[in-house]
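Incident log, support desk, overnight shift.

02:14 A customer reports that sequence design results differ from what the structure should imply. Their input is reproduced verbatim below. On-call engineer (initials T.W.) acknowledged and began investigating.
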């Protein structure tokens, strides 16, 4: 399999977070609507997918190019903050607590293109610090008027319409939904692991371009979720020979034997797209998953750069529905084994 990083440039507001399992759903719908995109029949790919994935998408993460080096800002690993402090022996308790409070505000961890995650305090960064880096690199005057965040949420007012009467009906019923705007000029990295015998990078980029044109996630028909593609680059597959844990890049359902796991639970309340969105039951069965940023300590180090399983039996209207329960994993190293 090959691992690529594809740059996504948001061009509109988004109604759905750019998570790997949702991107997989959009990818599959493109294959359903255009069977000529790949030479291999989709039915054969999905039959294999339960045992061996032919493609795995990560969630999207901010990136920046500084000092002739790519930096990716991944979600801070779901570990106790003590893992980032090393040994606290002979340290003043008050100072330890103060340091931990500072680290708590830093929601991202900085990773270079070797994709090795080191749990050290110096690698933790806050959203404000990332914004400052973008401001230094872009140098645009309009960033002076932006808040020190990478993403701004706002309420979009909607109203329920009776399609038979073309009116709101009795009882004026507006409601709000939250949309997100990304910082102008922000680039997001999407990591894609795929089987080169099934598709090549050009075919993958063609499909991603179509998704960007049609829109990603909720309210795509209203103009949300638009993006264009930037540069792509092939990355070396992660080396797990000397790592101490695994870091997940997207929501997943791990089935591997684990010594320990640190994670945040995530419930996916899925919904069908395309013509199944107007079916008798457009909603999928909910799935309890592990959020991206989880730390897995396996009994045996993996020989493949992914963990998890395929999600089946998701739909009551389409029995062949499959979801991505896989995640690309990266090697993670603890600051000190004393922690």
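02:41 Re-run completed on a clean worker. Output:
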């Amino acid at each position: 399999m090959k691992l690529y990083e594809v740059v996504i440039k948001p061009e509109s507001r988004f109604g759905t977070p750019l998570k790997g399992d949702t991107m997989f759903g959009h990818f599959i719908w493109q294959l359903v609507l255009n069977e000529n995109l790949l030479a291999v029949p989709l039915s054969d790919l999905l039959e294999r997918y339960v045992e061996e994935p032919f493609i795995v998408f990560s969630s999207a993460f901010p990136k920046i190019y500084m000092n002739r080096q790519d930096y990716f800002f991944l979600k801070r690993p779901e570990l106790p903050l003590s893992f980032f402090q090393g040994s606290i022996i002979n340290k003043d308790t008050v100072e330890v607590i103060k340091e931990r409070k500072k680290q708590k505000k830093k929601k991202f961890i900085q990773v270079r293109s070797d994709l090795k995650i080191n749990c050290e305090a110096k690698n933790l960064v806050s959203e404000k610090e990332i914004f400052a880096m973008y401001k230094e690199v872009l140098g645009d005057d309009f960033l002076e008027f932006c808040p020190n965040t990478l993403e701004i949420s706002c309420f979009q007012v909607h109203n329920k319409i009776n399609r038979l009467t073309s009116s709101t009906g009795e009882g004026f019923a507006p409601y709000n939904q939250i949309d997100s705007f990304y910082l102008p000029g922000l680039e997001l990295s999407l990591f894609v692991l795929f089987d080169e015998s099934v598709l090549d990078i050009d075919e993958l980029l063609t499909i991603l371009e179509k998704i960007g044109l049609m829109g990603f996630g909720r309210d795509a028909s209203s103009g949300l979720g638009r993006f264009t593609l930037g540069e792509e680059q092939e990355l070396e597959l992660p080396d797990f020979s000397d790592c101490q844990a695994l870091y997940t890049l997207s929501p997943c359902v791990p089935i591997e034997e684990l010594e320990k796991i640190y994670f945040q639970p995530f419930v996916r309340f899925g919904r069908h797209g395309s013509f199944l969105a107007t079916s008798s039951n457009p909603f999928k069965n909910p799935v309890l998953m592990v959020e991206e940023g989880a730390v897995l300590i396996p009994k045996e180090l993996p020989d493949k750069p992914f963990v998890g399983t395929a999600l089946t039996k998701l739909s009551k209207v389409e029995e062949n529905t499959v979801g991505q329960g896989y995640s690309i994993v990266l090697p993670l190293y603890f600051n000190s084994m004393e922690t």
